[in-house]
Amino acid sequence: MKSERIILGIDPGTQVMGYGLIVDKGKKIELITLDVFKFSNKEDQALRLKKIFESVLKVIDEYHPDELAIEAPFFGKNVQSMLKLGRAQGVAMAAGLYREIPIFEYSPRKIKQSITGNGNASKEQVAGMLGNLLKMGDVPQLMDATDAVAVAVCHYFQRVPDSAGKSYTGWKSFLDQNPGRMAKK
Question: Which of 54, 71, 105, 176 is flagged as catalytic?
């Protein structure tokens, strides 16, 4: 079995799509990179979807992730926005499947819960917790990028068993079982 795995997290969008990669080293994770792709809203929807597919493939081909975790669209009032977001998510998933990477999907609430312990946390709270967890120093201002890293870290928390065979259901569970891992200020 591979001792390390790379997880690609994606926060889908048709104008801004965040991505982040972490490496799972068993009991610890490290940030590899995070960034966003920006797409012009002046372009035809089909062309934007093609660019999303190509952009995700480019990241996959550069970093060779073992797994892809993606945020599921949340239910909103604007049906057109939901449709566009669902298409962006589907195209990003298709790029992963095209490279035969397993796909895992998480709801926004599940992601926030696993990172902060609160399913209603703000994007800023999630970014702050990730900054502490991954020792990022200054938390990036690109919330779509930190949201993508949150998806990857959420996936890590869902899958990581510790040496006693326990698994973590979220950030709070991890801290409860590993009190010495919290950085002291």
Answer: 71
Catalytic residue of the set 24, 144, 147, 162:
144
Contact 18, 147 (CB under 8 A): yes
132 contact partners, CB below 8 Å, separation of at least 6: 183
Domain chopping of the chain, boundaries: 5-181
Q: Residues 21-41: pLDDT tens digits?
A: 999 998 899 999 999 999 988
Task: Tell me the per-residue pLDDT of 138-154, one tens digit each, with 9 for 90 and over.
Answer: 766 789 999 999 999 99
CATH of 5-181, one of 3.30.420.10, 2.60.40.10, 3.40.50.20, 3.30.1300.20: 3.30.420.10
- The catalytically annotated residue of 11, 24, 67, 147 is 11
Helix-then-strand count for the chain, H and E: 6, 5
Establish whether 144 is a catalytic residue: yes
Is there a catalytic annotation at residue 71? yes
pLDDT over threshold 60, residue 123 = yes
Entry pTM: 0.83
